[in-house]
Amino acid sequence: MRDYVIVSDATLDLPYSIIKEYGIKVIPMGIVIDDVAYNYHPDEIELTIDDFYKRLKEGANSHTTQITPILFMEYFKKLLNEGLDIIYIGFSSGLSGTYSAAKLIEKELTEEYPESKIYCIDSKCASIGEGLLVYHAALQKKKGLTIDELKTWVEENKYNSRHWFTVSDLFYLKRGGRVTSFEAVVGTALRIRPVLSTDEDGKLTVVSKIRGTKAEMEFLISKMMKEGIELSEQTIIIGHGDNLNQAKELESQIRSKNIVKDVIISQIGPIIGTHTGPGMLALVYMGKKGDL
């Protein structure tokens, strides 16, 4: 039986230590900062997360680019030529055309390599919501699931990756068309932090608006308490965009309740950070979908 690898993209925002430990392959993604182009890799070889946020707070302009079909072709072919099958878990199709590009190459390479298996799956998730799904897929692979069994598992569980996040500066969301200019001005003046997630189509949606960091963390924890599945057996992830102090406070509050197995804090990388800005806070866990 051929071995296989789990592949994702640089929006997954998992700590590099986890990516390395489980042999997850991550395709880099492009970002342009003040007209200078970089490829963002999880090991931060070209661009560090800290430097990215420093430059963003200094007023730098940034925008991201999706993975091209050519890059998918080159990346997948290299793995196939090493005798590996591929299961790619990608950034939500509701937020990017990256997944569609991967599907085009899946079809082409399946014909060119008929003895190989190439499965591309739409995570319907963003950032560490996608990362959490990839992490759990890696855990399932470690248990011995075949590539076909894992494909079925991911499709059946992708909506169970529950992810909620807040932002402190609405102007980054305004630039991406997620809120109006009026909402950005009023929300920033009133210190309102929207809570966002993705819907069933994988599109970003504002599910609540909260004032104050205390209420924000209470909302995130209450969601986890209501939706979480077997939390005592789970390692949950807190993500932050240059917001470590608040992430540590959220971790402390969760640990004090003694309801989860472990907590990982992860930085939100430049690909997602371009659209959410400094101050983002996220909480992700496996659970059953409730009302948005």
From TrEMBL:
<keyword id="KW-0446">Lipid-binding</keyword>
<dbReference type="InterPro" id="IPR003797">
    <property type="entry name" value="DegV"/>
</dbReference>
<dbReference type="InterPro" id="IPR050270">
    <property type="entry name" value="DegV_domain_contain"/>
</dbReference>
<dbReference type="Pfam" id="PF02645">
    <property type="entry name" value="DegV"/>
</dbReference>
<comment type="function">
    <text>May bind long-chain fatty acids, such as palmitate, and may play a role in lipid transport or fatty acid metabolism.</text>
</comment>
<dbReference type="GO" id="GO:0008289">
    <property type="term" value="F:lipid binding"/>
</dbReference>
<protein>
    <recommendedName>
        <fullName>DegV family protein</fullName>
    </recommendedName>
</protein>
<dbReference type="InterPro" id="IPR043168">
    <property type="entry name" value="DegV_C"/>
</dbReference>
